[in-house]
TrEMBL record:
Membrane topology classification: Multi-pass membrane protein
GO BP: transmembrane transport
Pfam family, one: BPD_transp_1
Membrane-traversing stretches: 7-29, 65-88, 100-120, 153-180, 201-223, 259-284
A cellular-component GO term for this protein: plasma membrane
Family: Belongs to the binding-protein-dependent transport system permease family.
InterPro entries referenced in this protein's UniProt entry, alphabetically: ABC_transporter_permease (IPR051393), MetI-like (IPR000515), MetI-like_sf (IPR035906)
The keyword Membrane belongs to this UniProt entry's keyword annotation: yes
Every ABC transmembrane type-1 domain range: 66-280
Alphabetized UniProt keyword annotations: Cell membrane, Membrane, Transmembrane, Transmembrane helix, Transport
Organism: Microbacterium testaceum
Primary site of residence: membrane
Protein name: Sugar ABC transporter permease
Location of this chain's protein in the cell: Cell membrane
């Protein structure tokens, strides 16, 4: 009976493994193989080795898109999780509205990115609600062509991303709050600790697992952002919102039809996501172990 266990486990794992190989591993292998050719639309291409990868280092468009992607991800990760933490703490301290509040903050998360982009396009247009409110408040100097100005377009898209997923981060932090030992919080209150002291000494350290999950998910999601810049700015103005995913799209479907070079940039993006996410998670896990 004992000898049958490995065979039984293998039989149960086989369907999932087959699906993974078909949907994930095979396309990944094909993409990397394609990046080693000079394939274009209507041309199967020839093997060129690492020529496409050598080109990446000197391609100004790739370097700029990589910088934009990293900056965008950093802003989204920090602000989204900061707002999520504030929302989670507020809901935790208000048990009467906790369930309803948690449901409400998740509403933007349930919306498709394309729909959210269209809604915010209207709000951020020159005659949209945001500029109208600023004018009504006598703050005409603050009005902007938010999505048409290279200085504000990327931050406007980041705002939409944060608006969509701050509630998701809040839900994860709230789950962490619900697992906090009540006796430690009660003891801190009895000792006269202020709200800030309770947060820094008890809540923040014990929320380490929730922080790890939130940082990892928001980092991966923001590095791969595509729908929002595609719909809201199409990578403009002047390339100020062209992330790596947008650049892949342009290289393949933007007239050049360079399947091979697009696959090369996609491989670069994969490496960036894996390296940053793995490093961040390792550092956060180490912090959890210390705590």
């Amino acid at each position: 009976m004992i000898h049958r266990k490995p065979l039984t486990a293998a039989l149960f794992l086989a369907p999932a493994l087959a699906i993974y190989l078909l949907i994930v591993a095979y396309p990944l292998f094909q993409g990397i193989s394609l990046s080693l050719t000079d394939s274009k639309v209507g041309n199967a291409g020839h093997f060129v080795g690492a020529a496409n990868y050598a080109k990446l280092a000197t391609d100004g468009d790739v370097v700029r898109a990589l910088g934009i992607t990293v900056v965008y991800a950093a802003v989204v990760v920090v602000v989204q999780n900061g707002i999520g933490l504030l929302l989670a703490r507020a809901l935790y301290n208000r048990p009467r509205v906790r369930r309803l509040g948690n449901a409400l903050v998740l509403v933007p998360t349930l919306m498709s990115a394309v729909m959210a982009a269209f809604i915010w396009n209207s709000l951020l247009s020159p005659d949209g609600s945001i500029n109208s409110l600023l004018r009504a408040a006598g703050l005409d100097a603050l009005t902007r062509v938010w999505l048409g100005d290279p200085a504000t377009a990327l931050w406007a898209i980041a705002l939409v991303n944060i608006w969509m997923f701050a509630g998701y981060s809040a839900s994860i932090f709230l789950a962490g709050y619900m697992n906090l030992p009540s006796d430690l919080l009660d003891a801190a209150r009895v000792d006269g600790a202020s709200g800030w002291q309770r947060f820094t000494a008890v809540e923040w350290p014990l929320l380490a697992p929730a922080l790890t999950v939130n940082i990892t998910l928001s980092l991966i999601g923001s590095l791969k952002v595509f729908e929002l810049p595609l719909v809201m700015t199409n990578g403009g103005p002047a390339g100020s919102t062209t992330t790596l995913t947008m650049l892949i799209f342009f290289k393949i479907f933007g007239g050049q039809g360079s399947f091979a070079y697009g696959a090369t940039i996609a491989t670069l993006l994969l490496v960036v996501v894996v390296v940053l996410a793995s490093t961040t998670q390792a550092l956060l896990r180490r912090r959890e172990d210390r705590i």
